[in-house]
Specification:
about 325 residues, alpha/beta
Length: about 325
């Protein structure tokens, strides 16, 4: 395994120290041994603290989205492992403004369970902690069972909208309402072309045969909807886009936002090749793209693959996405 690491068992610790040094004017490690990254300059307009958290390996998620535009603190777990309840609790303490904290989480059992345990701990300190989960991954549960879908790259929009509402001094109920609205209007699909390698394991987690692709693969390598022949980029892009449009079941033309996120090993050249066809399919279906996000927003270590996210826009989402004073995450740095 040829990687730029030291001890494979301490990659998260080393990463956090480097991240905190690189952005020392913006964030700090609240508790070094507990993997909590918190904003250094708190937003005085906010009434509510926002946190998130999850396993490492998805950088820039989650620690990259701490900033004045979105999250006040994050609980950072080991690679693909949920942060312990104590770590979520420390994040709640670090993000507390007025004894109310909201967690904006991916819909993974370990993350939700540990957040709930941390909320019980915070309650003893007089802090009320509630949460909303993203569930944009259409491949992880069938239509009609959306509440059991996982949250993947679409979580970016949850953090963006939540941060914008918090910066408007919104109440917890108002923030949750706005966040749930964008969650309900976000869909994602992932295609993987090769495996990922967890540093402590040292070998690929699974195999994708040459000439094949895993359509609907999960961000941790969970099996996809199907193993299919690898088509040209246009064919892959059309298949992904149509899957999302079919899931939306739009009854009229809509305004949408589109995100293409690499999973860690895909060159940006290929992202733009894919977008060329994505735009065509959406436009030919009668919809209009108002916002485009292309980059590495939520990755999966070194997996060669891509996620496509579409967000149905309304007046509120449009307003909050274009809020000029609310950068999100790495836009702060």
């Amino acid at each position: 395994m040829q990687r730029f690491i030291n001890d494979p068992d301490f990659v998260v610790d080393d990463m956090l120290r480097g991240f905190a040094k690189a952005h020392a004017d913006k964030v700090y490690i609240s508790r070094d041994n507990d993997h909590v990254v918190a904003i250094r300059e708190r937003d005085r307009k906010r009434k509510i603290g926002l946190i998130s958290g999850g396993g490492s390996g998805h950088e820039p998620a989650f620690l990259g989205y701490v900033g004045r535009g979105s999250l006040d603190a994050v609980a950072v777990g080991e690679v693909f492992a949920s942060p312990p309840a104590e770590t979520f609790y420390d994040a709640m303490i670090a993000a507390n403004y007025n004894n109310e904290v909201i967690g904006l989480l991916g819909n993974y059992a370990g993350d939700v369970m540990n957040f709930k345990m941390a909320a019980d701990m915070a309650k003893q300190d007089g802090i009320t902690a509630r949460y909303v989960t993203a569930h944009d991954d259409i491949a992880s549960a069938k239509k009609g069972d959306e509440q059991n879908r996982h949250g993947i790259a679409g979580g970016y929009f949850m953090w963006k909208i939540g941060g914008a509402r918090a910066n408007e001094a919104a109440t917890a109920d108002e923030i949750i309402l706005s966040v749930q609205n964008v969650v309900n209007k976000t869909r994602s699909i992932v295609v993987g072309l090769s495996s990922l390698t967890i540093p402590s394991v040292g070998k690929p987690n699974f195999t994708v045969e040459p000439g094949k692709m895993e359509f609907g693969i999960g961000h941790h390598g969970e099996p996809g909807i199907e193993t299919a022949d690898l088509a040209e980029a246009d064919g892959v892009a059309e298949k992904m886009t149509q899957a999302l449009l079919d899931d939306f079941e739009f009854d009229r033309p809509r305004h949408v936002a589109v995100m293409i996120s690499g999973l860690g090993a895909m060159p940006m050249m290929e992202a733009y090749i894919l977008y060329n066809k994505v735009e065509e399919v959406i436009r030919n279906a009668g919809h209009r793209i108002d916002h485009v996000y292309i980059g590495n927003f939520v990755t999966s270590l070194n997996m060669n693959g891509v996620s496509l996210t579409i967000v149905e826009l309304d007046d509120e989402i449009e307003r909050l996405l274009t809020e000029p004073d609310v950068p999100v995450g790495l836009e702060n740095y």
